[in-house]
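Researcher: Here's the sequence for the chain we discussed earlier.
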Amino acid sequence: MKKGSAWPWLIAGALALHVVVSLIVVFIATSDPSYAVEKNYYQKAIDWDKKMAQDRTNQDLGWRFEFAVAPPERPGDQPRLEVTLADADGVPLTGATVTVEAFHNASSGDVLRATLPPTGESGVSRTTMPMGHNGRWELRFTIDHGGREFTSTETRHLFVEGNWQ
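Model: Thanks. This is the structure I predict for it:
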């Protein structure tokens, strides 16, 4: 081998190594099940004015909205979601339909969806959801009552795993 003839091979090898490492990184990044892109994100950006109008509607309605998530009582049970609704005067909203989308921030590709039973006389509705991990959860609520729609997006640290001895 002539003196200096190894340099082109060394440079080509470094470039090839760079390409292989880059492909490995892309594969790992795209095969991660916890990674997710917001569904219909482009349409949501286009509909920003509609979202702002809905925020104004929420404010005008003045509904009082609260929710709580209780851990399961026994092993094998699921956490319980409870939603409480009242109008601007504090009167419970009966017959309201509540839908929710929920996901843990560490696995945002796994979106849980539920439609709760209509709210009763006390303005409360309950359901169970298979929320398997403690941590930061985002819950997106849509409430329909007599053709009027109220929305709320809540992000909270939730404890959804039971403490059994």
